[in-house]
């Protein structure tokens, strides 16, 4: 595909180049997203088995624990791919918080109305996806909370449980092992629901596969 | 005249010299003999502080005195003769005096005690003389009895009971075996004796006072003397990997490492109950020095497992197990123990003991306001350990290949729910007093605070989280299905409207 604008018959925004407005998900984000997705699925399965070991005969407890530990570390490392990319690129604007609350709630309401009704009428999303303004207000607030609060807390509590003796002092500081475990489990419960809903919402594109394909290629298809 | 005078004087000179020399020699001998007598007659303190080899030592102390006198003479050959003599003389005298005692006591004689029982007074002469005590005077230990004060019908010594006499005689042992006595005083045995136990061992329970066996001659493999009281435990040990290795010549580990027997883990005099805190693990690591490394290679959270799971729980695979809760002093980093001195803490623990741990020991502790010495607040929490149910089980250590290796053995809720839960309080003598704990209290939400560290994977202290998970799964299904259905309905409605 040519990158020379003079040769184009279609507007710039339709050109699939890394500079175009269609290039929503750069490679580091895609790598991070799919590794994270696989990791979360494995962590949820092994985590469920660890917690309800008597309910399933899927694998040995030892395998579950060891897989959970290894994948956990991989996901922590992967988090820094995401963090590093956004810290050192101008794409960080996709997460910039909306400081105008009136505008934020207004847009969020419109977005909810779209998901609740407009989407079934074939309306366009009120939020126009752009490389530097990728998320609608609902996505923006959810992902900020998830990535900057929920996920780090899950990593920290997981790390503490990985070597209780080594992290004896921090565990005691946050209220003991049971508190750490409870927080870890509550977040796990949240992610069980989150993953299911997230996957469903991913299927709400023009066709169910659209957004999935976009997340692989990096290019928006619905401009 | 001059010659004769000088000649007379010259003739007298050798005579005078011989006379003076004889006088000096005689006085030297007298002095030496006196010096030899002195330790026996001079001070009881010398005798009481004598060590196990009192005869040898006392002669050693005499040597400088004798040497000083004889050195003046310049007669070296006599010196050696003088050094040997006192010890030999003393031994001779000891044996002579002892033989007087043994003459009667070699026979089967008894004494009627205050409790109505008879105590044997018999000391077998040959056994005694051949023993490590063979050169010790009878009256060194039996101080109440001497040549001139031997009990007779008129001067009878009253003894309450044989047990009381044995306890009393510990003091006689102390005089020579001070170091061992101090170790014994720190033992669980001594603590039990002090509490008035009539079975806990005193010195003579393990050592025959009249035929003590030298340490090198002890036949540890027989299990004696421990087996006399702890037969079940010794039998369990004999069947264990340690017992078998010991009996079969240490074929399991390197040949230069001798498999442990009772005293190797429990010590022979400062006998301790190994169940307290970290003592057991430390004892095991003393020989199995690489176990931390080995467990780290495969066991997740190895450090915590080694801290809270007693070695025998996995290495005595057929033993019954339990969860044992204990109050833990987070400041001193030790399990809270009942010991003399710290009165407020002791009152708290006593209250828990009295209330029988029906509820939550930590709640009882808090309700009464637990404070340490000098009114300092103590940071106490309730911790749990996995232990084996009995002392016998703790000794049934099997070979490594039989050790529990599957995590599910413990991390399986159904298994865990069947386990006993006890609350233990360490007694002043180091033993643990265990109470059956109320399981319902442990699983309540309220208990999370007090037993913040009582958690193991696979255990679900609260059903609340399970319900939350079910709701989350339900939401994860309901939201997509609901949204999808809503979409369908709206589309149909619009389609109908259009018609």
How does this structure look, described?
- The complex is a heterodimer of chains A (223) and B (499).
- By secondary structure, chain A is mostly helical.
- Chain A is built from seven helices and no strands.
- The longest helix of chain A is centred in the first third of the chain and has 27 residues.
- Chain A is globular and about 50 Å long.
- Chain B folds into four domains: 89 residues, no CATH class; 105 residues, no CATH class; 179 residues, no CATH class; 37 residues.
- Chain B contains 24 helices and seven strands.
- In chain B, the strands form two sheets. In chain B, strands 3, 4, 5, 6 and 7 form a five-stranded mixed sheet that branches.
- At the A-B interface, α2, α3 and α6 of A face α16 and α24 of B.
Shape of chain A: globular
CA radius of gyration of chain A: 20 Å
Distance between the termini of chain A: 18 Å
Q: At the fourth CATH level, what is the homologous superfamily of chain A?
A: Transmembrane di-heme cytochromes, Chain C
Total domain count of chain A: 1
* CATH topology annotation of chain A: Fumarate Reductase Cytochrome B subunit
Q: What's the CATH class of chain A, please?
A: Mainly Alpha
Care to count the β-strands of chain B?
7
According to DSSP, the number of beta strands of chain A is 0
Structural class of chain B: alpha+beta
Which percent range fits the helix content of chain A?
A: 55-70%
Please provide the ordered H/E string of secondary-structure elements of chain A: HHHHHHH
Span between termini of chain B: 181 Å
Largest interface: which pair? A-B, 41 and 42 residues
- The shape of chain B is elongated
Q: What percentage of amino acids of chain A are in beta strands?
A: under 5%
CATH architecture term of chain A: Up-down Bundle
Quaternary form: heterodimer
Question: Main β-sheet of chain A: number of strands, strand sense, barrel status?
Answer: none
Structural class of chain A: mainly alpha
């Amino acid at each position: 595909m040519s990158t020379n604008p003079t040769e184009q018959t279609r507007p710039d925004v339709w050109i699939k180049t890394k500079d175009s407005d269609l290039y929503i998900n750069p490679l580091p984000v895609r790598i991070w997203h799919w590794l994270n997705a696989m990791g979360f699925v494995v962590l949820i399965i092994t985590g469920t088995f660890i917690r309800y070991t008597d309910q399933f005969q899927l694998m040995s407890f030892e395998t579950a624990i060891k897989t959970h530990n290894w994948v956990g570390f991989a996901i922590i490392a992967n988090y820094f791919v995401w963090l590093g990319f956004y810290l050192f690129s101008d794409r960080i604007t996709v997460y910039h918080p909306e400081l105008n609350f009136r505008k934020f709630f207004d847009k969020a309401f419109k977005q909810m109305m779209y998901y609740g009704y407009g989407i079934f009428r074939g309306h366009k999303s009120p939020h126009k996806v752009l490389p530097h303004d990728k998320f609608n207000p609902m996505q923006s607030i959810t992902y900020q909370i998830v990535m900057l609060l929920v996920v780090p807390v899950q990593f920290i509590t997981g790390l503490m449980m990985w070597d209780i003796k080594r992290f004896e002092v921090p565990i005691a500081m946050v209220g003991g092992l049971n508190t750490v475990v409870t927080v870890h489990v509550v977040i796990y419960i949240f992610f069980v629901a989150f993953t299911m809903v997230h996957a469903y919402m991913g299927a709400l594109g023009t066709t169910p596969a659209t957004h999935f394909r976009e997340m692989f290629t990096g290019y928006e298809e619905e401009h | 005249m001059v010659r004769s005078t000088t000649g007379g004087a010259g003739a007298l000179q050798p005579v005078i010299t011989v006379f003076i020399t004889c006088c000096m020699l005689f006085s030297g001998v007298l002095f030496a003999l006196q010096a030899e007598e002195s330790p026996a007659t001079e001070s009881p303190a010398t005798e009481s502080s004598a060590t196990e080899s009192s005869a040898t030592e006392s002669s050693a102390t005499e040597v400088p005195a004798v040497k000083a006198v004889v050195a003046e003479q310049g007669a070296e050959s006599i010196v050696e003769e003088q050094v040997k003599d006192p010890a030999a003389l003393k031994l001779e005298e000891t044996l002579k005096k002892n033989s007087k005692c043994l003459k009667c006591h070699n026979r089967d004689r008894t004494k009627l005690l205050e409790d109505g029982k008879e105590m044997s007074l018999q000391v077998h002469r040959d056994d005694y003389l051949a023993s490590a005590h063979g050169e010790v005077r009878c009256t060194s230990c039996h101080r109440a009895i001497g040549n001139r004060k031997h009990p007779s019908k008129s001067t009878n010594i009253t003894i309450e009971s044989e047990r009381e006499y044995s306890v009393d005689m510990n003091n006689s042992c102390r005089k020579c075996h001070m170091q061992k006595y101090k170790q014994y005083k720190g033992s669980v045995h001594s603590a039990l004796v002090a509490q008035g136990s009539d079975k806990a061992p005193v010195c003579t329970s393990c050592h025959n006072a009249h035929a003590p066996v030298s340490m090198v001659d002890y036949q540890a493999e027989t299990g004696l003397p421990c087996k006399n009281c702890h037969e079940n435990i010794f039998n369990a040990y004999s069947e264990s990997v340690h017992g078998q290795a010991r009996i079969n010549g240490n074929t399991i580990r390197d040949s230069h490492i001798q498999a442990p027997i009772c005293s190797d883990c429990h010590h022979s005099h400062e006998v301790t109950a190994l169940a307290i805190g970290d003592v057991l693990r430390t004892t095991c690591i003393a020989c199995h020095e690489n176990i931390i490394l080995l467990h780290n290679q495969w066991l997740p959270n190895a450090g915590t497992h080694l801290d809270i799971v007693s070695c025998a729980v996995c290495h005595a695979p057929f033993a019954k197990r339990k969860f044992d809760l204990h109050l833990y002093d987070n400041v001193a980093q030790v399990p809270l123990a009942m010991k003399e001195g710290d009165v407020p803490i002791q009152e708290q623990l006593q209250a828990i003991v009295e209330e029988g741990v029906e509820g939550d020991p930590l709640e009882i502790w808090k309700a009464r306001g637990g404070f340490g010495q000098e009114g300092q607040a103590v940071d106490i929490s309730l911790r749990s350990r996995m232990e084996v149910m009995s002392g016998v089980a703790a000794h049934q250590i099997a070979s490594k290949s039989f050790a529990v290796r599957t995590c599910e053995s413990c991390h399986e809720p159904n298994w865990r729910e069947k386990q006993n839960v006890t609350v233990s309080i360490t007694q002043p003598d180091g033993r643990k007093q265990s109470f059956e704990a109320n399981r319902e209290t442990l699983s309540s939400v309220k208990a999370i605070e007090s037993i913040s560290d009582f958690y193991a994977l696979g255990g679900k202290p609260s059903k609340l989280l399970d319900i939350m998970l079910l709701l989350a799964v339900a939401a994860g299904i309901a939201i997509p299905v609901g949204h999808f259905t809503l979409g369908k309905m709206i589309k149909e409605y619009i389609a109908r409207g259009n018609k």
